[in-house]
Amino acid sequence: MTHMSPSARFGALALSLLLPRVAVVAQGASTRIATVEVRAGRDALSEGISPWQDQGVTLGLRASTRTGVSVTAERMERFGLDDQRLQGELSFALGRRLTLGVEGEVSTTHQVVAKDGGAAQLHLSLPGGWGVAARGSMRRYTAVEVQGASFSLERYSGNFLASYSAAPVRLADAPVVTTHSARLSRFFGERGSVTVMGASGKEVEALAAAGPLVAAVRAAGAWGVLPIAPHLALTWGADITRYEGLFTRRHVSLGARVSSR
């Protein structure tokens, strides 16, 4: 998850974890790197709801910009309930322009989060700095199953990346709902980046202790990576999301990333 957990909540942003890496691929970079990242986040909610908290540790190993693996262990507190979740990712090249990514997650507590799930994504680099991506996912909660997808169009120009995503998702047998999002990223150096994002539509999210709900959302946020030493960088994120008829959520997170180079 650059990865930003924020980046996962908005449906389209769930294609998240591979996107910053693909940006490096588009620039033709090559690297072998191991990373360890620790982070913590806090959500302030309206309507008198107690704040949410989350902490995570990610271990990553990349053989190249298009091939790598990472494992993330997370702890989340929502509605006074504690959940733990383990996530894994694997990405690798399928030819010159096609990259495949697969993800999996499992929670032994699954009081609010999904008890298990998985996703797969294909990214195709096109001439002229263009790229397209398609992603499918499935998550099983205690009582229901959530199926989702996302389709993204992106354009690279120098150190900038602009993208638009549409993310349809379905909760059990309910009608399909869709979130639309747009983002703009600026990459600097080998490790630094800043991204701004806006999203609107309907999504399925774990917004109640009883399980996931469908909610109309409007969201805006920013996150990035700030190198502060040759092997050390800070990761940060901030976003605000309004769930219509429920509450407004203000999220901040801060982390530290240590890398082998």
Jot down its keywords:
mainly beta, 2 helices, 261 residues, 14-stranded antiparallel barrel, disordered N terminus, Porin
Quickly describe the structure.
The protein has 2 helices and 14 strands; from the N terminus they run H-H-E-E-E-E-E-E-E-E-E-E-E-E-E-E. The protein is mainly beta and 261 residues long.
Write the layout of secondary structure elements.
Layout: H1 6-9, H2 19-26, E1 33-45, E2 52-64, E3 67-78, E4 81-94, E5 98-106, E6 116-125, E7 130-140, E8 145-157, E9 160-171, E10 177-188, E11 192-208, E12 211-229, E13 232-243, E14 247-259
Output the CATH class name.
Answer: Mainly Beta
β-strand amount = over 45%
Oligomer: single chain
- Indicate the percent of residues in helices: under 10%
Strand order of the largest sheet: 1-2-3-4-5-6-7-8-9-10-11-12-13-14
The overall strand count is 14
Fold and architecture overview:
With about 260 residues, the chain is mainly β. It has one domain (about 5-260): monomeric porin ompg (Porin, Beta Barrel). Helix content is about 5%, strand content about 70%. Strands 1-2-3-4-5-6-7-8-9-10-11-12-13-14 form a 14-stranded antiparallel β-barrel. It is globular, with a radius of gyration of 17 Å. About 40% of the residues are buried.
